[in-house]
Specification:
The structure holds 2 protein chains of 2 kinds. By secondary structure, chain A is mainly α. Chain A folds into 2 domains: 2-131 and 229-251, no CATH class; 139-214, no CATH class. Chain A is built from 10 helices and 2 strands, in the order αααααββααααα. Chain A has a two-stranded antiparallel ribbon with strand order 1-2. In chain A, a hairpin with a 6-residue loop joins β1 (91-94) and β2. The longest helix of chain A is centred in the last third of the chain and has 32 residues, at 183-214. The two termini of chain A are 42 Å apart. Chain B is built from 9 helices and no strands. The radius of gyration of chain B is 18 Å and the shape is globular. The chains are: A mainly alpha, B mainly alpha.
């Protein structure tokens, strides 16, 4: 899954667009979603981001749909709580025998939150699917984030891919040997997996130190940054999109008055 | 359990950013000092960060069959101390947000506080207290990792209840959020504690020099633990 996301980030239709502009569009969309008082603007953001992902970046629709399903469980659990404890408005639904009720106020809040979460998720995927991590690091460096933080983040990023590969191999061989048959065994196997993984990565970390020293590592990693100019039509379209969403956000309140 | 992008309204997401910031600054300062003193520390920190990421995207066995994930930051805190664990937590959370839309950018402050600061701090304190009174090493690590996981979920419930107090007020909202998360998180915390304790057991048996070099366990403790296992 992770490799696939990075593959798309490297090969998508918006690959040649200036990474700063893409990051700016994504982050501005997220802020617009969070600050919008009504659910219309976040839904507009979700639609615009999805259209950009599907038509401009040319990400397959089926893959994108599967990505959107991943974070659903947390949303459902938390929205359920909010649905029942938020006050205000007429009662729409009551649980018999318990002081729990869904009101228009709580339904409004739940719809607003779902819209914000949805819009935010689409914006995050817009960044993840169009901008390779290496370019994000380059931007962070230009923003004067401490070098040690960027180096640490870059190395962590590299190790994540190695580790996931190894964890998958260990997991598959454990499953083939019936390592997850019973609950007790599955705890034992998980511990074995995590332990073996930790030791192996620690050793590869030590090997990396040697390799970096051998190549003259002096405490700073170089990032090859390539300058791509912001094209005027792209910038204009981005600003138009952001001001349109802002306008919608300011002119629409909640769906129904509380 | 991360709070999703867009879930925390203003001003709460800004508040949690401000709360988390000092811990991150101290953590960065410590990382910088550590790397200046020992250059080989940087890849090892990166390995620990990647380990936390992978561990927290593993599905651990759960009693009720739900697929929840552990936090994994307890181990980082025991190895490197709570402030450096906060920096590792921040990096992991940024990657999870940007890769998986798990967590988010505006909720980053809140998530860093629950998973990167509160949980590791509890793990670290329990580990220190346990080693001081000379409790069983594996029992201490089990308690540290399990309670770090639980703390993370309690803090998340507090964050949600503060932002959405509802009719029932803060306490009522807190118990509602805590109850619904408890279904998955309490069994998970126990499993995470057991798994992290097993990880330590493997380290002690196979590569104990990692622990002695970080001044976590003395040579004599390790000899004792290995003899007990043999």
């Amino acid at each position: 899954m992770y490799e696939v996301l990075e593959d798309f980030a490297q090969t998508n239709g918006l690959r040649q667009t200036n990474p700063g502009l893409k990051l700016f569009i994504g982050l501005a969309s997220i802020l617009l979603c969070v600050s919008s008082p009504g659910p219309v603007a976040p839904l507009l953001v979700a639609a615009a981001m999805s259209v950009a992902i599907l038509t401009l970046a040319k990400i397959p629709a089926r893959f994108y749909a599967r990505l959107l399903l991943i974070p659903v469980s947390f949303a459902v659990m938390s929205i359920a709580v909010i649905l029942f404890i938020t006050p205000g408005g007429a009662v729409l639904f009551e649980v018999p025998g318990l002081p729990l009720a869904i009101t228009t106020g709580s339904a409004n809040l739940a719809v607003l939150l779902l819209a914000r979460v949805f819009g935010g998720m689409c914006s995050l995927y817009f960044i993840a699917l169009t901008t390779p991590m290496a370019e994000v690091f380059d931007i962070l460096r230009k923003l004067r984030v401490p070098a040690v933080f960027i180096d640490l983040a870059m190395l962590t990023y590299r190790f994540i891919f190695i580790l996931i590969e190894e964890a998958g191999q260990i997991y598959r061989s454990q499953v083939m040997r019936l390592g997850y048959g019973r609950f007790r065994e599955s705890v034992q196997s998980s511990g074995m997996l995590a332990g073996a993984l930790f030791l192996r990565t620690w050793e590869s970390g030590e090997a990396l130190v040697l390799a970096m020293d051998a190549r003259g590592y002096d405490g700073k990693l170089g990032i090859p940054g390539e300058a791509r100019t912001v094209s005027f039509p792209a910038l204009a379209a981005a600003l138009l999109y952001i001001s349109a969403v802002l306008g919608v956000s300011l002119s629409t309140g909640g769906l129904a008055p509380v | 359990m991360h709070i999703m992008e867009g879930f925390l309204p203003s001003p709460w997401w800004e508040i949690w950013f401000i709360v988390s910031l000092p811990f991150i600054i101290v953590g960065l300062y410590q990382v910088n000092k550590l790397v200046q003193e020992k250059r080989e520390a940087l890849p090892l920190l990166a390995v620990a960060g990647a380990f936390v990421f992978v561990l927290s995207s593993l599905k651990l066995p759960s009693f009720n069959g739900s697929c929840s994930h552990p936090t994994g930051t307890g181990l980082g805190a025991i190895l490197f101390g709570p402030f450096i664990a906060a920096v590792l937590g921040l990096i992991v959370l940024v990657f999870q947000a940007v890769f998986l839309a798990h967590g988010g950018i505006t909720t980053l402050g809140a998530n860093v506080f629950s998973m990167g600061i509160a949980g590791p701090a509890v793990a670290y304190l329990i580990y220190k207290a346990g080693t001081r009174v000379g409790a069983n090493t594996y029992a201490t690590i089990f308690a540290a990792a399990a309670l770090a996981d639980l703390t993370t979920y309690v803090v998340t419930s507090v964050q949600l209840a503060l932002a959405f107090p509802g009719t029932t007020g803060f306490l009522g909202a807190f118990s509602a959020f805590a109850a619904i998360f408890a279904i998955t998180q309490i069994p998970l915390a126990i499993v995470e504690g057991a798994v992290i304790a097993l990880v330590f057991k493997y380290i002690v048996q196979l590569k104990p020099e990692i622990l002695t070099r970080l001044n976590l366990l003395s040579e004599s403790t390790i000899t004792k633990l290995r003899e007990a296992a043999a």
